[in-house]
Amino acid sequence: MSEADDRYTPVYSPPSPKMYDNDTVNNNDTIVLFEGGDVIIKACSEDAVREFLVSSEVLGRTSNVFSSFLDLPRTKAGGESRRLPWIRPITEDPDSVEIILRVLHGQLDYVPTGFDFDSLGKLEHAANTLGCVDKMSLVVAYGLRTINVNELDLAMTTKYAAIAMRFNLAELFRTVTKHCAQRFVNPLVHVWTLGAGNLKTIALAIQLQQSSVKYAIHAAVTALISSCKSECGCLYTLGSQGNATLLENLQTFYHSPLTVAYTELLFFVKYAESSCLFTCEEHLWDTFMECSLSRSRDQAVQSLEAALELCKGLCLECIKKDSKDAGTCSGAH
């Protein structure tokens, strides 16, 4: 998963189906999750088959797939008592199936701490097959209970924020995004090196409407304004996707301190032939203008004047042109 990814998308293909003997079961190989259970889940991977003895009543209360087991007769046709539990084969990763089944039976301590991100796809797929995907929030929350955000790098912070969003873990999301925002106070972290995925996480942090988070990011962006004046780098080096991603998420925050700082950063960026405001696409310029004009008219004019001065006197119409002869502006516009 690359650093630019802004959403966690589980990828898991279940193993090929295998044939089962549904009338016999080797009880010595069965993992008993519920004493006196009346259902055996047989989970199959490409190289293993594991059996779990579970309770139909527990499954019926938590799973829409197994609720019908509660209505099944307890005896075979002809009145003969059933000697063995009903068997339900599924083609899923056995380890993932065991975690989900243990959670359903209240055995939360079995959930491993810390997640291999690839394993989340298998867990979610198994939960879906078992008819209890709504339990994934509990599984993920418990599995991430020992996470230390201070040990996360920027890429991992982004991934955890996306996972928290996916599974509706509000507290984890607040913790991770606040940590992410505070990291940007360091002026050595240059906004244009972050990539679209990390910009998305910053924008999500803003949406929490927590002043401490918003002002932390505001401080970071403000700190970068001065460095932009002395370097030839530009926010445009994020690419249109990176800029658009952040700006789209800021459109409802025109009056926030962050939007003001970000707009100033865009207008005060140093002119360079290969990296300049005039290389920005038309729709980005419209967004820049809208952000700027949300402030007082005097502030907007000052920002534009400063931008024109830094751009060697080019007028706004020339700057907006994606043209290499913008540097020959005659001022006739």
TrEMBL record:
<protein>
    <recommendedName>
        <fullName>BTB domain-containing protein</fullName>
    </recommendedName>
</protein>
<feature type="region of interest" description="Disordered">
    <location>
        <begin position="1"/>
        <end position="23"/>
    </location>
</feature>
